[in-house]
Amino acid sequence: MPVARDLRLLLRLTGFRRLLAVRLLSQSADGVYQVALATYVVFSPEKETSPAAIASAMAVLLLPYSFIGPFAGVLLDRWQRRQVILYGNLLRALLACSTAVLILASVPDWLFYASALSVTAVNRFVLAGLSAALPRVVDTDRLVMANSLSPTAGTLAATAGGGLAFAVRLVSSESDAAVVLLGAALYLCSALASLRMARELLGPEQGLVQPGLIAALASTARGLVGGLRHLAERRSAARVLFAMTLMRFCYGALTVMVLMLCRYAWSETESEGLALLGLAIAVSGAGFFAAAVLTPWAVGRLGQYGWMVACAGSAAVLEPALGLPFAPVPMLVAAFVLALITQGAKISTDTVVQTSVDDAYRGRVFSLYDVLFNVAFVGAAAVAALMLPPDGRSVHLVVAVAVIYAVVAATLVRWSRVGAES
């Protein structure tokens, strides 16, 4: 099979294999940490969870980074990315340990969120660095396959980390704190794994590196404007980022809905709700894996735009068909399908951005990419908070999401035709 052959060729590349190992450890820690936060905020017996509470938590954790993210991207284009990944993971290990202490101390929620925010901010910084570094270890011809394998494998690692977190939570009396400490240990392992790569391997070019903090920050504003101007000149990259942001919005709104359904509509107890959430995460992981296998084949036949159109169009049809019954089995099927569709579109988006954007700008563009993801997810949570009833069943939300998917598909068709004519 061509896919299996390409996978074997990729894994023979030492730089790619080592970068992948760092990503797997880092994102497995993300999965552990995110499950710890979700269970602490949503499934704690002493907390009365509502869509508004979930939206508030997401805003606290994600929005502040959305304002500093572009500036972090400029630093990614000036500091050695290997060092960013190394120190970022070391810092996350330390901050995660602090979060565990705060959980044990039963501190006010705002202090807990401040600690969790710090971990999340560094997390986005590291992920942007990993994506910007990928073209440095893989040739252009295999970049689509690398984008299928690397981020999707990371997502699967996060899913596995989430499963491990559920297991720890079942056997530990101080479950939330123990899960966070497990995440800290995995962050430390990721930092150590990054030391297997040379400092210069992941770029940027040596002439662009500015080791000094003051020198780097002095050019941040100017570099941010340059990054935005560069993205505006790369219309294909700007267009797919816009489409992917809307699809991320849809996925975020449905995520909040599933959380509420697991918590109230489908379960009588906290443990039942957690079990259903764990199953939904596992099914989504299978969808991400299917996207990694299917996307290279689909892109080869449909092209990048064509595959994104197929993803958005399929979602517009299948999401209401599976979601409107508000029953566990159809919704779990929807979790698989929408994970496949979202990840498949993201693989194409990553590839278009990486091939359209110069290496000197990739760090700040991928940081902008992360900011769009964060804002879309928080915005989706806010909209869901307004539309969802306490049990999570909302016909209006399901229909609205289907309409957005349809608009994305139609817009991509139009852009692909304009591009072909020009």
Please render the helix and strand layout as text.
Layout: H1 2-11, H2 14-42, H3 51-76, H4 81-105, H5 109-133, H6 143-171, H7 175-194, H8 213-218, H9 220-233, H10 235-265, H11 270-323, H12 328-356, H13 359-387, H14 395-421
Structure description:
The structure is a single chain. This protein is mainly alpha-helical. The chain has a single domain, classed as Growth Hormone, Chain: A. It has helices at 2-11, 14-42, 51-76, 81-105, 109-133, 143-171, 175-194, 213-218, 220-233, 235-265, 270-323, 328-356, 359-387, 395-421. Helix 2 runs antiparallel to helix 7, helix 4 (81-105) packs antiparallel against helix 5 and helix 4 packs antiparallel against helix 7 (175-194). The two termini are 36 Å apart. The mean pLDDT is 84.
Alpha carbon gyration radius: 21 Å
Q: What is the terminal separation in angstroms?
A: 36 Å
Which runs of at least 5 residues are low in confidence (pLDDT < 50)?
A: none
Q: What is the global morphology?
A: globular
How does the helix and strand content classify structurally? mainly alpha
Helix content: over 70%
Number of strands: 0
What is the CATH architecture descriptor?
Up-down Bundle
Number of helices: 14
Mean pLDDT: 84
Number of domains: 1
Largest sheet entry: none
